[in-house]
Amino acid sequence: MEKFILAIDQGTTSTRASLVDKEGNIVAKAQQEVKCLFPFDGWVEQDANEVFVSVLNVINDLLVRTNFTFENIDSIGLSNQRETTIIFDKKTGMPVYNALVWQSRQSAYICDAIKDKTDFVKEKTGLIINPYFSASKIRFILDHIENGQERAEKGELLFGTIDTWIMYKISRHKIFKTDVTNASRTMLFNIHTLKWEDDLLKLFNIPKCMLPEVCPSSYYFGNASFLSDDLKICGVAGDQQAALFGQNCIHEGDVKSTYGTGCFVLMNIGEKPIIDKNGLITTIAWKIKDKVAYAIEGSVFVAGASIQWLRDQMRMIKSAAESENYARRVNDTLGVYVVPAFTGLGAPYWDDDCRGAIFGLTRGTKKEHFIRATLNSIALQTKDVIDEMSKVTKKKIEILRVDGGASENSYLMQFQSDILNSEVDLPKNLETTSLGAAYLAGLESGFWKDIEEISKVHKINKKYFPSLDEKEVSEITKKWKKAVEATRVFK
Q1: Which CATH architecture describes the domain 246-427+459-491?
Q2: pTM here?
Q3: CATH of domain 4-230
Q4: What's the 3-state SS for 384-434?
Q5: Cβ proximity of 414 and 425 under 8 Å
Q6: Which run of H or E residues covers position 292?
Q7: How does pLDDT run across 343-356, given as a tens digit for each residue?
Q8: Could you give phi then psi for residue 332, rounded to 5 degrees?
């Protein structure tokens, strides 16, 4: 009987299920949108039950479409939106509050109150103090439900990121676990000792009994008995770490960039963490058996979202694909620079207060220049992150592996190669998050023998090579830096 890995990718706006074969091909997939709720400005929430139901729906859809059964599934690999926080009742398994999505800023005041602990927190966790991460979200929920702290201390309430929640529900409440990658995004986990950190739990006044058991990423977590008694869950990782593994970034110095709504750049830094004192965070890339790999990460808040902005708000294009055609109609931007800081700037600046700006407009500026400059801004923001990575690790980035929707824009990828003076590799399969989850599961189940076998099935679809001379790159970069500085001043 033909066997596959079932890869579940639970993202912020949609849930996907894919079947992955031995050659690393996704032979079938299903997808369902997931709603975000916006009760107040800056708040982003989801219905946790709806998230779980979406997982069941895409699995059923996939099996109906393919006429396969659970007997065709070797094991499950799970990847998930990171940091999103759910607190649920241990006895009933029901959420006690909406899930607080990673983007949500409603716990910012909790983070602001402990800014003096910045160095302490970063040294322990590799993270900056920010409502992006789970710790302040847990504190917020406990403060906003009746007897939250008391119930938590009595062991009546449990905390989970999305992976923990899905496994708890899909195992009929038997699995209460997470993996090291998701734990490392909570701001409660010591990335050196690989344990929940008592000092951080004390800082946020979070009872340890709420927290799940932390396991390797490639590991037998238990059975998805809600679906089938013998169906094993063998791989779990946060979405960006799964994409790093799915991109075959298995060696120290390997880098991938995912171009979605935002842009997430991760570099494999090997078996020892490096704590950047500036704008990058350190995270756990994965743990396979006893070996831990670490990564440094930089997040760009607005990448593909700037193309959506051109389409929906500026009405300059009718589809995202048109942006490439317009950008190619002119030879340059005519000196126009767009800094799309619509919600502030992410790494390496971490400036929440600045807003977007446009520089260099003249009477000769056409929408083609404007569109080209907007695409350029995605690559230039990515370069800012990668330059910081090179500085921290003292490594020149020779190859950037790319994925995500905007990576299909060949103009953007060529400019990314030009501005980095590095090769840019586009994989044959852009669903690298699903692939990474599948690979981690298949390693544990024996579907693949080892990482070397997985590396052989990874295929590159297209390579981009730099074509700009050093002087042009220097001039573009210098003006971009000036534009960013001016944007940050104007508040």
Answers
A1: 2-Layer Sandwich (3.30)
A2: 0.90
A3: 3.30.420.40
A4: HHHHHHHHHHCCCCCEEEEECHHHHCHHHHHHHHHHHCCEEEEECCCCHHH
A5: no
A6: strand 291-300
A7: 788 888 888 788 99
A8: -160, -170
